[in-house]
Amino acid sequence: MKLNEIKDNEGSSKDRMRVGRGIGSGKGKTGGRGVKGQKARSGVAINGFEGGQMPIYRRLPKRGFTNIFKTDYATVSLGRIQIAIDAKKLDPKATIDAAALKAAGVIRRAKDGVRVLSDGELTAKVTLEVAGASKAALEKLEKAGSTVKLLAAAAEVAE
């Protein structure tokens, strides 16, 4: 096979129908748009309009809200930290914090802090400085002989 011989399979694509090109084409006159009216013209924008009936987005009640004070943590698994250590992107002897994880490419941004989850296994003995960790992750870290320092949440208001 040569690059200049590559082509689609027979019948895999149809030719474009040219509309409005005479009665003999089968798609002449109205061009498949029916007859007259707003939808037969160009520039139709009537999404959500239900012919004068109250639209569904107005019939249904409003529910819920977005909490603007919610803390959004960057999550990282123990397995992902171990992969970064094995790849020599993280130094297990140094303190691993949000800045170190970002520099290693483990997380993209720290958001409101880093939260460690228990997916995967961590064999290296490390010192973590994070905003939070799941109970299972803390148990696995303890078993590996690691130390974890939980930071006060960055968004927490001092009283």
How can the largest sheet be summarized?
3 strands, parallel
Secondary-structure element order, N to C: HEHEHEEEHE
Specify the CATH architecture of the domain at 74-150: Ribosomal Protein L15, Chain: K, domain 2
Walk across the major sheet and give the strand order. Answer: 1-3-5
Number of strands: 6
Which parts are unreliable, with pLDDT below 50 for 5 consecutive residues or more?
A: 154-159
Helix content: 10-25%
- Helix and strand content put the structural class at alpha/beta
Cα-based radius of gyration, to the nearest Å:
30 Å
> N- to C-terminal separation?
73 Å
CATH class category name of the domain at 74-150 = Alpha Beta
Look up the CATH topology of the domain at 74-150. Ribosomal Protein L15, Chain: K, domain 2
Nearest-integer average pLDDT: 90
Shape: elongated
Number of helices: 4
Strand content: 5-15%
- For this entry, what is the oligomeric state of its chains? single chain
What would you note in describing this structure?
The chain has a 3-stranded parallel sheet with strand order 1-3-5. Strands 2-4-6 form a 3-stranded parallel sheet. The chain has a domain at 74-150: Ribosomal Protein L15, Chain: K, domain 2, CATH 3.100.10.10. The longest helix has 9 residues, at 78-86. The protein has helices at residues 56-59, 78-86, 98-103, 135-143, and strands at 74-77, 95-96, 114-117, 127-130, 132-133, 147-150. It is an alpha/beta fold. 13% of the residues are buried. It has 4 helices and 6 strands, in the order αβαβαβββαβ.
